[in-house]
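Journal club side-thread
Mid-discussion, someone asked how the predicted structure for our own chain would compare to the paper's figures. Pasting it here so we can look after the session.
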Amino acid sequence: MNDQFLAELSAQIDDFVAERDWQQFHSPKNLAMALIVEAAELVEHFQWLDAVESDALDEAKRGEVADELADILIYTLRLAGRLDIDLEQAALTKMEKNRRKYPAEKARGVALKYSKL
């Protein structure tokens, strides 16, 4: 991904929505609900698979998973735009918080919540 990817994709999404007059349906509440529905659809592809199976998806299944991930990204960008959140800055800020909560020397190889480290 290049530096302009999120901005360009957000603009395409905004145009897509405007062309269909869907702004009226895109309240933050509705977008958050749509986002969680797409996340659930992603999870369905992995339900009942073990770790090895989930890491070895065939081409068709990978394509379906890619579609769900794309839907999640699209709704995430739309919600961030609707709330005027700079998603790139938010992600960088969150990564810094994660570094503090999960210092490598304590978290390496350990699958515990930060409060249990």
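Post-session note: The chain has two domains: 1-85, 86-117.
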